[in-house]
Write a structure and sequence with these properties.
single chain, 238 residues, alpha/beta, Stationary-phase Survival Protein Sure Homolog, Chain: A, 9-stranded mixed β-sheet, two-stranded antiparallel ribbon, 5 helices, globular
């Protein structure tokens, strides 16, 4: 793995995701941070590894490749990216921002989400973090420029708040029509309701067929808030 040059300035923010270095959500996150006139370093998976949870690589070499503007694409998981970023590429950076994920990471999704795992891994090591995801309703798509604008507003708010030790922010943007004004920001707990266990069986195989939008929800928790068109902000304790 190549060494970082000693004269390379270390930015305050590390950016990562689970959709891949060149995913539109990463471009949107970069734009969001740039809107705040903040410096950052991208250390993200080379390819999409969505839904990998908190998987880490311990018995194989992790290959990293230099990218534009000093960033690194990593042949590994989001948690691997966090580890390499804080151990090698940006040791003094105190914040990891992960996203913008193409799809919600609401409620119990936080346990299988690679987007969230990247932040959780950083918090284990004393850093601070924010995971940002964008819910996609059926037959809809994401307006990434709009998502970037919304995320920038959210970041400006959260970065000026006190963040208790051993916690991080999990943010979910709602799916609204293009051109919609910034939705209301709502602080809310994450929903403990399980995802529906619906499968289509064929011989010895099973294909998950649960409908994300039909998942159970607790009134006032993050699933309900985001599905209702507002930005859900949940403080997650580890």
């Amino acid at each position: 793995m190549s060494q970082v040059q000693s004269n390379q300035p270390v930015p305050p923010f590390i950016l990562t995701n689970d959709d891949g270095y060149h995913a539109p959500g990463m471009a949107a996150l970069r734009d969001s941070v740039s809107r705040l006139n903040a410096k950052f370093l991208v250390v993200a998976p080379a390819e999409a590894v969505s839904g990998c949870g908190h998987t880490v690589t311990t018995h194989a070499k992790i290959i990293s490749s230099p990218e534009d503007k000093g960033g690194w694409s990593v042949a590994g998981t989001p948690a691997d990216c966090s580890r390499l970023a804080i151990h090698q590429y940006a040791k003094s950076s105190q914040w990891i921002l992960s996203g913008i994920n193409a799809g919600g990471n609401l409620g119990v999704d936080i346990f299988h989400s690679g987007t969230v795992a990247a932040v959780r891994e950083a918090v284990f090591h004393g850093r601070k973090g924010i995971a940002i995801s964008h819910y996609i309703a059926k037959n809809h798509s994401i307006d990434w420029d709009q998502a970037s604008q919304w995320a920038s507003v959210v970041l400006k708010v959260l970065l000026n708040r006190d963040l208790p030790e051993n916690t991080f922010w999990n943010v979910n943007l709602p799916c609204l029509p293009q051109g919609s004004p910034i939705p209301e920001l709502v602080d809310c707990p994450w929903d403990r309701s399980p995802l529906p266990l619906d499968y289509l069986y064929d011989a010895n195989s099973a294909a998950y067929s649960g409908i994300y939008h039909n998942r159970p929800r607790v009134i006032g928790a993050d699933v309900d808030v985001c599905f209702g068109g507002r930005i859900a902000i949940s403080l997650v304790h580890i």
